[in-house]
TrEMBL record:
GO terms for molecular function: N-acylneuraminate cytidylyltransferase activity. Pathway: Amino-sugar metabolism; N-acetylneuraminate metabolism. Its EC number is 2.7.7.43. This is N-acylneuraminate cytidylyltransferase. SUPFAM superfamilies: HAD-like (SSF56784), Nucleotide-diphospho-sugar transferases (SSF53448). It comes from Eublepharis macularius (Leopard gecko). It is an enzyme of class 2 (transferase). It catalyses: an N-acylneuraminate + CTP = a CMP-N-acyl-beta-neuraminate + diphosphate. The lineage of its organism: Eukaryota, Metazoa, Chordata, Craniata, Vertebrata. The gene is CMAS. Residues 1-15 have a biased composition (Low complexity). Keywords: Nucleotidyltransferase, Transferase.
Length: 419
């Protein structure tokens, strides 16, 4: 009989230092994210943007920052997914079509991966469909395998749900309680609940997978915090998952700071980039009222908003928009100007948010504590940011980014309140 032991994300387990753990261990533990191109419900689900980040990006970020893996892989049959995986620092296993079908199981794809990778002793199969994973979870699970000697560990979540048997015509005409006594219904606080596999990850030693199992041998579960337990299964889950990751997801090693300054590129962010020119050479720009509202909301919450452009935009036209923002035009080097503003306001980069869409924005996007690009921004800008808006430039991207900033600021403030 396989032994099952518990671990919990809320238990106080000694967490090893991030850097160097993977190198120090002789066991080759590989993270493996399965991301086939043909998903049934949501097209290309595995790279669809969830809160501005491609779905696989959320778990790849956690896997990389955990520092416990000797190698991090995405197994895919799709060029676009390969590109995104590499952008997030993963290696790519191009899998065969046999293990990419609707009927192929995760185990099929994992077995194929191992056939090509003799060096791997343990596979940590992390499912992209559970994007609220944190590095601390992976660090604890790696310890359970490496130090506590488990052959397999998988994630579970505790639920307080009463189960009832199914009524089947001609077989069973009535229902029966499965895990409760209706005469003595326990209150939530009087009942430990039950553990459910939540599909976030499955770690298993090669020797076990060779026998055709992901769960077996000396086996343990890892209990995840309920708020981190998100399983995207159907389309309807997507907006819910989006709210969850914004609140509880992992945003990288750097602690977030309150935003004090938002710098926004004019052409292609505040505006669509279209300019109407009259016979006498006058420019007419248009902007989205939603974006003006976004700017005013930010200002109301004490965020200074400034506009920047490489082009010699008409200051008269910009001031006619009545946005109440300081503006700098004909800028040769945007980074120099933002540095100047940052110093003038006595801010660190983490307190600066930046919305840009072009090559000239890349340095600022990389340095800012929070950055975003409109959906129709150039690929270099998209690569440099951690939030790709759903809205296009001049079509609500500022308003959308403002909401994102507010949510993250809520996260900063609630973290500050913890004892
Ligand atoms: C390890 C395992 O058995 N995983 C299965 C899980 C697991 O049982 C549940 O999540 C538990 O809550 O269920 C399935 O989960 P699902 O189909 O959503 O797959 C989870 C993630 O893995 C990718 N995948 C899966 C199989 C495969 N051959 N190639 C892949 O790339 C998907 O693209 C997706 O990102 C299911 O719902 O049918 C199928 C999965 O195979």
């Amino acid at each position: 009989m396989a032994a099952a032991v518990r671990a919990s994300s809320s238990s106080t387990v000694a967490v090893p230092q991030h850097s160097g753990d993977a190198e120090r261990s002789s066991t080759h533990m590989a993270a493996l994210i399965l991301a086939r191109g043909g998903s049934k419900g949501i097209p290309l689900k595995n790279i669809k943007l969830l809160a501005g980040v491609p779905l696989i990006g959320w778990v790849l970020r956690a896997a990389l920052d955990s520092g416990v893996f000797q190698s991090i892989w995405v197994s895919t049959d799709h060029d676009e997914i390969e590109k995104v995986a590499k952008q997030f620092g993963a290696q790519v296993h191009r899998r065969s079509s046999e293990v990419s079908k609707d009927s192929s199981t995760s185990l099929d794809a994992i077995v194929e991966f191992l056939q090509y990778h003799d060096e791997v002793d343990v596979v940590g199969n992390i499912q992209a469909t559970s994007p609220c994973l944190h590095p601390t979870d992976l660090i604890r699970v790696a310890k359970m395998i490496r130090e506590d000697g488990f052959d397999s560990v998988f994630s579970v979540v505790r639920r307080h749900q009463f189960r009832w048997s199914e009524i089947k015509k001609g077989v069973c005409d009535v229902t029966k309680p499965q895990n409760l006594n209706p005469a003595k219904r326990p209150r939530r606080q009087d009942w430990d609940g039950e553990l459910y596999e939540n599909g976030s990850f499955y770690f298993a030693k090669r020797s076990l997978i060779d026998k055709g199992y992901l769960q077996g041998g000396k086996m343990a579960y890892y209990e995840m915090r309920a708020e981190h337990s998100v399983d995207i299964d159907v389309d309807i889950d997507w907006p819910i998952a989006e709210q969850r990751v914004l609140r509880f997801g992992y945003f990288g090693k750097e602690a977030l700071k309150e935003v004090k300054l938002l710098v926004c590129t004019i052409d292609g962010c505040l505006t669509t980039g279209h300019i109407y020119v009259s016979e006498d050479g006058k420019e007419v720009l248009s902007y989205d009222v939603r974006d003006a509202v976004g700017i005013h909301l930010l200002q109301k919450r004490g965020v200074e908003v400034r506009l920047i452009s490489e082009r010699d935009c008409s200051l008269k036209t910009l001031s006619a928009m009545k946005l109440g923002c300081a503006v700098e035009v004909s800028v040769a080097n945007k980074l120099h100007i933002v540095e100047k503003w940052r110093k003038e306001l006595n801010l660190c980069w983490k307190e600066v948010a930046y919305l840009g869409n072009e090559e000239s924005d890349v340095e600022c996007l990389k340095k800012a504590g929070m950055s975003a690009v409109p959906a129709d921004s150039c690929p270099a800008a998209q690569k440099a940011t951690n939030y790709i808006c759903k809205c296009n430039g001049g079509r609500g991207a500022i308003r959308e980014f403002a909401e994102h900033i507010f949510l993250l600021m809520e996260k900063v403030n609630s973290a500050g309140k913890k004892p």
